[in-house]
């Protein structure tokens, strides 16, 4: 079981409130991703759940039991750190067995569980090596192995993939998702990378300055961002946000349109502009168009390869059904 | 990393070290300050049980007023100053030399550092007897070889002798620290200067020396603190005679030889104040370094 | 610096450096050499660099006459004991300062350092008085305590700088893995810091071994270590060069060897981390 409740959780360092009172309910077996720009308090929040930071107020309940003041060891949670935090002086086997040793399990049981975890994580051949002799991906797997042997009620991941190169990151992402499908244990995952959030999460918590901007499934966030911050943060490439006269024509302070929801024509359309840089990815083409009456270039995404060149004149037409409208406070108008 | 748990644990774990050092500092210090205001001559029957006479600042005045005070200040300054000049100057030269590529760097480094590990009593006695003895010492042999009259080092050149012995002991320290500092100098900087056409001397003056500035300051401050309290080197050689009675040694004699505790304690307070002034400068540098 | 240097220049540098190195080392070399001569040969003019009768007699005489082994044993006990005790007190303190820093950490560190600057002679009488009161005069335990206290700031500082290099996340990982404070320090921190702790021990054994104010002033016969043993040669026995040399060689040999292992840590320890 791993049902985690944050009840008016608050954190202040001296006079600086980094997390104003915050409520969140994480259901058992859920994969929840905390995402936000650096400094938004997502790591602090995770560390508070872990018990590595104190709360300045509020309560944390794990499976209904108050864990606010419980030391980390008593919470039944496991954590995977950004730097992996493996014990450099211990072999992989002893690293993975460490939590079991601390729990006082007998040697045979330790060996059995370590072997099982190594099997799952493809580490069987590396058990007698030191962390220093492993590659980044393997170290990551050892860190995960150390977390799973304890059979915790929830896993906490603190930007676990940020030290890996791009190719490995995609692979590990799949492995962690696979692990979640197999174990069905609650996972809380912190990242600044919205792609990780979108691809892995059951539910995403978008944070800014310690505050929850929106909570929802990846598609909810994509389809109906609650405000301009979420709109701009979720989705790649970023949603185009346009304010001024064009926005007021749609009865909003700001309008947002995703690059994939803009039609391109060389003969006529709503916005007229000139093509700047275009990025050819093979499967898609992104190009940036400087439009009349819009200060920032508009990003457009077109499937496949299109014959548009730098300097060409084009007309753009946003799909009216996919247009997001925001009011003066940046909140979504429904 | 900071929870109430870990913070209270931290306080608890720091307690033994803090309490011990606090006791080590405060208890004797308080006693010294206390004695410095008392007349306390155990040989004349003064004792703590019978109570000591309060004499105000008389001890302080008498310590400074005594005929041996200024000579001792002079001896202290000469020894400390002499050793500092020699070790820092030679230390810089040696550090630059050892930084050059040559065969057997490791071995030479070990040879140069070795004197630092020799206990003070040994180095003082070896120098005094085997090198500076006017009859059988190595220097006497050397002097005679060149047809000169051997020098009675310990009586005729006593202060210089002490300076030589102590410099030999501390040169490794200065060299080692300056060498470490030189090695941390970015060689690209020097290469850039070389490319810019700067000659060797100006490269040394404008790049190496400023880079060493902090290390030199540290060497000076740390050595000063240790040199102010050199004791064994004097104790086993001249015993404070022939103008080698430093402030430290004078205080030692007041307390141990003449058993004038009050006077010695007043001297001790002076020494503590002096050391603290120097320490203050050292702390500034170390403290600044901590922030980085 | 991997710079190309011409061979003639390298030869010249080698010659100069070796000459200076040997010159600086000469007094130690000469002491060791003389310890193997007879007394007559030790004062021969011109000095004998070779061709003397190699003898171990001086060592035997020194041991026999002044019971060298007892002083050696005292030195070992005092230097080792004070270092060990210091480490036991300093490890938890350094843990606190390195991993749970507070606003006062820096002040405490600097204050500890400042106790090191206290001139020993200023507190000589009070310490002797306390030693008499508590029956510590001329005891090993008394010296162990004093040397532990005077070196404690250095031990704390060195450990602190070594601990600082260990990422806090690893200790947090241990905490998450269910380790208590004691286990965290015992199973994770200490093994990781072994090289640092070893150098700290080494440097402090050297400092304690060579300490020559308190050891001379607080001991008489039974607890006197090698520093005091050598001081007893100040006169007139010092004129027996071969004996003096043998005694000196025995007093410095162990620490010379230890010292060569610790030269790198020396800088860090003695500058309180200000020069690395």
Largest sheet of chain B: 2 strands, antiparallel
- Series of secondary-structure elements of chain A, N-terminal to C-terminal: EEEHEEEHHHEHEHEEHHEHEEEEEEE
Identify the CATH architecture of the largest domain in chain B. Orthogonal Bundle
Percent in helix of chain A: 25-40%
Coarse morphology of chain A: globular
**Total helical elements of chain B:** 13
Subcellular location (chain C): Cell membrane
Family (chain C): Belongs to the binding-protein-dependent transport system permease family.
GO cellular component, one term (chain C): plasma membrane
Organism (chain C): Histidinibacterium lentulum
Concise summary:
With 334 residues, chain A is an alpha+beta fold. Chain A has helices at 42-50, 92-102, 107-120, 136-148, 166-183, 194-200, 218-223, 228-233, 245-249; strands at residues 4-13, 16-26, 31-35, 57-62, 65-66, 77-80, 154-158, 186-191, 203-208, 211-216, 240-243, 254-257, 262-265, 271-280, 284-291, 298-303, 313-318, 324-326. Chain B folds into 2 domains: 34-68 and 245-292, no CATH class; 74-239, MetI-like (MetI-like fold), CATH 1.10.3720.10.
Could you explain the architecture of this structure?
Chain C: It is found in: Cell membrane. Chain C: Belongs to the binding-protein-dependent transport system permease family. Chain C: This is Carbohydrate ABC transporter permease. The complex is a heterotrimer of chains A (334), B (292) and C (276). Chain A has 334 residues and is an alpha+beta fold. Helix content of chain A is 27%, strand content 32%. In chain A, the strands form 4 sheets. In chain A, strands 6-7-8-3-9-10 form a 6-stranded mixed beta sheet, with helices on both faces. In chain A, strands 13-17-14-15-16 form a 5-stranded antiparallel beta sheet, with no helix packed on it. In chain A, helix 2 (92-102) packs parallel to helix 4 (136-148). The model of chain A has no long low-confidence stretch (mean pLDDT 90). Chain B has 292 residues and is mainly alpha-helical. Chain B has a two-stranded antiparallel ribbon. In chain B, helix 3 (69-99) crosses helix 10 and helix 9 runs antiparallel to helix 10. Chains in contact: A-B, A-C, B-C. Chain A binds chain C through residues 50-52, 71-73, 77-79, 81-83, 85-89, 98-99, 102-103, 146, 150, and chain C through 167, 169-170, 172-180, 183, 187-188, 191-192, 194.
